[in-house]
Amino acid sequence: MAVLTIARAIATALAEEMERDPTVVVLGEEVAAAGGTYGATQGLYDRFGKERVIDTPISEGMIVAAAVGASMNGLRPVAEIMGINFAFLAMDMIINHAAKMRSMFGGQFSCPLVIRTTSGGGRQLAATHSQTFEHLFAHFPGLKVVAPSNAADAKGLLKSAIRSDDPVLFVEQATMYSERSEVPDDREFLLPLGKSDVKREGRHVTVVAYSKMVGLSLRAAAKLAEEGIECQVIDLRSLRPLDLEPVYESFKQTNRCVVVEESYRTYGVGAEVAARLYEDCFDYVDAPIQRVAQKEVPLPYAANLERYALPSVDDIIRAVKETLK
Amino acid sequence: MAEVVPMPKLGFDMTTGTLVRKLKQTGESVAKGEIIAEIETDKATVEVEAYVGGVIKGWVVEEGMSVPVGSPMLVIAEPGEAVDIEALTGKKATGATPTPAGRTATAFAPASTPTPAAAATATTPTGRVLASPVARKIATDAGVDLRQIAGTGPNGRIVKRDVEAFLKAGAPAVPQPVAAPVAAAPAPVPPAAPAVVAVPEDKVIPLTRLRSIIARRMAESTSTIPAIYLTLEVDMAAALALRQQVNAVLPEERKTSVNDFIIKAAALALRQFPNLNASFGGDKIIQKGHVNIGNAVAVPSGLLTVVVRDADVKSVAQIAAEMKAMVARAREGKVQPSDIEGSTFTVSNLGMYGIEHFTAIINLPEVAILAVGAAREVPVVKDGQLVPGVRMKMTCTADHRVTDGAEVAQFLRAVKGFLEEPLRLLV
Amino acid sequence: MDKTEMLELYKQMVVIRLFEEKCEELYQKGKIGGFMHLYIGQEATGVGAVSARRPQDNVITGYRDHGIAIACGMTARAAMAEMLGKATGCCKGKGGSMHLADKNLRYWGGHAIVGAQIALAAGLAWADKYRGSDAVTLCFFGDGATNIGYFHEALNWAAVYKLPVVFICENNKYGMWTPIEKVSAVTALRQKACAYNIPSDVADGMDLLDVRSKTEVAIAHCRAGNGPYFLEVLTYRYRGHSMGDQRPYRTQEEIKKWQAEDPIGKFEDVMLKAGIPPAEIDKVDEEAKAIVLDAVQFAEQSPFPDNEEIWTDIYAED
Predict the structure, then answer these.
(1) For the segment B77-110, what is each residue's pLDDT rounded down to a tens digit?
(2) pLDDT per residue as tens digits for the range A77-111
(3) Burial tier of A242 (Cβ tally within 10 Å: 0-12, 13-18, 19+)
(4) Residue of chain C minimizing CA distance to A105
(5) What residue ranges of chain C have pLDDT lower than 50?
(6) Active-site annotation holds for B400
């Protein structure tokens, strides 16, 4: 085990997979010579050369289109969209093409590609550059949407995403790249896509989160434990396929649930999880399911406003206590 | 041709029937052979088929009404046929009772027997009890009427903890003083009474939910626990004197009872004998950190065990105040879950009934229970002289899997020690 | 070109024409649903250009795809069954008229989002180039698609990375119902390729031989590693943009003028001049008729997909 940052864990996963499989190629803005805006492709260009690590024009639609076309024709591209905000420019290629290529043509084509991107606020980039909307992609069958919450998960999930024969949107949280944790060295360290993971055991309240919100939830859970409130923190890891079995299992014991997401609550992940719990676990509900999310405004620039708008540990603690009333 | 359908005769000995449910409402058409009503006889509830087809022009019996066999129940006629119900039946048609589809009057009736409206249950304006789905499910599975339970959730919603506390409260571990008089018939039976004396018939009383839980838990306790019983007599003169002194200076609402002193004494003694403040876990003994003393309280619907938490560190006055409040709530049917949860040892005191000595059944999953009799004035021998004294007998029932006679004896001696030098309870 | 090949290409054009006339009929009878865009009038473009490719070369197009599909070798049966939404269709009844494809023919599909196939073509070509294959990608699109972002991003991209793509713009004069001159700043659409430094040419879309020879030049350019090539083919669609379009925006005179140049009739003249006897041409006409009738019968008799088929092919593991 080595202690790595998330950026390093991603670069390691990419390097291992590129070594293992010559059809794996990396493309995106500033991924080659510069090593990635966040350092997540550092070292790849020197090691694998310009045919496999490609700096592209600022041309998001085409970055994804090139990946889709090449994946149909035998490559396993890992395309980087510098920020999920720019994925809107590639939305057609992702939703209308990557997600549908297999089914609409009766299973003839597949798109084994990964789109790595960065989501989330917290860096004073104002409204257009601070968004969290991976759940929009998770709406669509045909795509897989994965969002790790720590370095080990980032490595294990990215390696699985690259080996997957389906298009995977791999969402990294922008403020987490330097977070460190132990990462297995094993080159076959693969985490299954579409499996949730229990990050902390607890019997009073089920807290569901993913990506950065897992960390916040764990901090909230630690504080709540001092008051004798034990939270089961479940990391979804993947928004599609969505694995709610561990959530159901926990909820049947706790009867209470808080869902934490960085995006807006309206039509969000919390809405989905809560609806499924009401549908599938109605007889276990003891309190209204709480959602912790970003305030429903375009995220402002000023640091205090941004902090105020984004979900916090205190918000989670409040929501947990609300379920215990 | 209008047809007056009477209360049918559904058995040779049926004289009256009760209309339980109308399955077809006024104005609805009905085919011959279709079920129109449920009728309850002495023996059963029976579905009644229409023997003619047509449109129901009106009912003259309300749901819930009992009427003699043959008396008019409803009128069925051709669609469009003008019918004078009163002329035909001699009765006025009942008010139209349109029942929404699928929501017949009984559909939302409580699943179990009617219950005292003791608990202040929160309901919606339409009368639906406010309860969380899981609370509803547990209550339904246990056959409990939610209206028996007071909700402590937001807006008085009944939540899981309320139902669980309610079910748990139904398992007291002590003899049932209020039930005792039923069997109290020690008087000699008179010689063979003549048969002509009017003897009341046997009465069948279905067990209430609470009663059946008591039955089950008592049976479980006695059948699983190898219990030992030890009795020790305590000189209560000093304790009673001290209580009198204390009460003289306390306001009414804080005055103490003998039992409050016993709770405190037991709690302090338990600190020295953690094996008795425990539960049995098959391959382990779980000694409890808190000393929470349960106290059996008779209430109209049965028996509750109210809990003084951390009684070892509370003052007698505080214990007294808590007990007063909890007993009052228990008798009003407004116990809070915290009143009845979490006891680690139970005290049952029947002294107020003059009971000299009794044994109690252990309140699972506890390990021991203390049965306390009356403090009575008795002649005692002191220094070779017969003098008046005050004595109280207390009996500890203990789980021999966890503890042994010697340990229980020492525990009783410790309780006795506190009560005989009661100043130790106040400092 | 030898006579056998002439007859073969002629046959493809006739099959396409008859196939689409049959589609029109079946659409009106309610047997074909959705949007349907006919290729009638443009047959020489697809057949001429595709005839210039080698088996390793890719073909990709937009939603006006029946002709290209058949030119690539798709059987009329597989195409017609797909039109009717049958389980035996080339896409198991999941794609329909706008999404005919056959991976085995390296025919990568009709793509119904305007311009998307131009961008996808660059991706297909990149994979071949990366592997060291000399395959070339032929990418068809209409005049209307030259105004969309994908077109410009893809041309730039293909030029930057010197990708072997022949961009074939089928300029049929109308983007949906709007004449191209109303919506494009330049009407000689090959001018747009100049901005990306991509060499270009223009071909007569009613002349199969012209389309074919210019496509051969384009393919050779790409195969030699010189990057993309742009071929503008001037053609005309006889029918509306899609079914239900009554074409009020153009005159009967205009349609008649183009029909006088009909690519099939023109190519028949070429064959006659080359000494092919009329009887052989008649025989091919009969064969084409039989192929289309057989396809209709096959499609009509084929089963609709099972409802449970809906859950398949969403993910690799499905």
Answers:
(1) 988 888 888 888 888 888 654 444 433 333 333 3
(2) 999 999 999 999 999 999 999 999 999 999 999 99
(3) middle
(4) C91
(5) none
(6) yes
B51 three-state secondary structure = coil
DSSP characters over A310-325: S--HHHHHHHHHHHT-
Q: Identify which of C130, C156, C313 has the shortest CB distance to residue A51.
A: C130
CA dihedral sign of residues C250, C252, C257, C263: positive
Beta strands across the sheet bearing B29-30:
B3-6, B72-77, B54-59, B29-30
Please calculate the CA angle B35-B40-B45 and round it to the nearest 5 degrees.
65
In the block, residue with structure tokens 């094996």:
B275
CA distance B338 to chain A (A): 14
Q: How far apart are CA B107 and CA B397, in angstroms?
A: 47
B132 contacts chain A (CB < 8 A): yes
Chains C and A touch (3+ CB pairs under 8 A): yes
CA distance linking residue A153 with residue A175, whole number of Å: 16
Give the tokens for residue B181.
């008089």
The complex's ipTM works out to 0.95
Query: In the predicted model, what is the mean pLDDT of residues B58-86?
Result: 87
Could you give the angle at which helices A269-280 and A245-254 cross, rounded to 10 degrees? Answer: 70
CA–CA distance, A303 with A264 (Å, rounded to integer): 19
Tokens 């990946």 belong to which residue? Answer: A67
Separation between Cα atoms, residue A316 and residue A206, nearest integer Å:
12
| Own/partner long-range contacts of B323-330 (Cβ < 8 Å, ≥24 apart) | B323/B257, B323/B259, B323/B260, B323/B263, B323/B295, B324/B253, B326/B297, B327/B297, B330/B297, B330/B299, B330/B304, B330/B306
Model confidence pLDDT, tens digit, residues C227-277 = 999 999 999 999 888 887 778 888 889 989 999 999 999 999 999 999 999
Q: Which residue type is seen at B209?
A: R
Indicate the helix (H) or strand (E) that contains A172: strand A168-173
C306: DSSP letter: P
Q: Comparing C-alpha atoms, which of B283, B135, B130, B144 is closest to residue B212?
A: B144
- Which residues of chain C are within 8 Å of residue A59 when distances are taken between CB atoms? 153, 156-157
Distance between CA atoms of residues B124 and C160, nearest Å: 70
CA distance A233 to A210: 10
For A102-120, b where at least 16 C-beta lie within 10 A, e where not — what string? bbbbbbbbbbbbbbbbbbb
Q: Cβ contact (<8 Å) for B134 and A255?
A: yes
Whole-number Å distance between alpha carbons of C40 and C240: 10
* Cα–Cα distance for residue pair B3/B56, rounded to 1 Å: 10
Look at residues C271, C162, C171 and name the one whose alpha carbon lies nearest to residue C211: C171
Which one of the listed residues B32, B128, B216, B400 is annotated catalytic?
B400
Is residue A160 within 8 A of residue A192, CB to CB? The reply is yes
3-class state of residue B197 by DSSP: coil
Which has the closest alpha carbon to C136: C72, C202, C221? C221
Closest residue of A to B131, CA-based?
Answer: A286
In total, chain A counts a number of residues equal to 325
Q: Cite the DSSP H helix spans in chain A.
A: 6-20, 44-48, 60-72, 91, 101-104, 134-138, 151-163, 212-226, 245-254, 269-280, 303-309, 313-323
Nearest one of B113, B115, B150, B111 to B301, comparing CA atoms? B115
User: Alpha-carbon dihedral of residues B177, B178, B180, B186, nearest 10 degrees?
Assistant: 110
Provide the shortest C-alpha distance from residue C129 to chain A (in Å): 10
User: Residue B68 is encoded by which pair of tokens?
Assistant: 């003699």
Residue C84 carries which side chain, given as an amino acid letter?
L
Inform me whether the pLDDT recorded for B360 exceeds 90: yes
- Residue A71: count of CB within 10 angstroms of its CB: 28
Distance CA A72, CA A34 (A): 28
> Side-chain half-sphere of C304: how many Cα atoms within 13 Å?
7
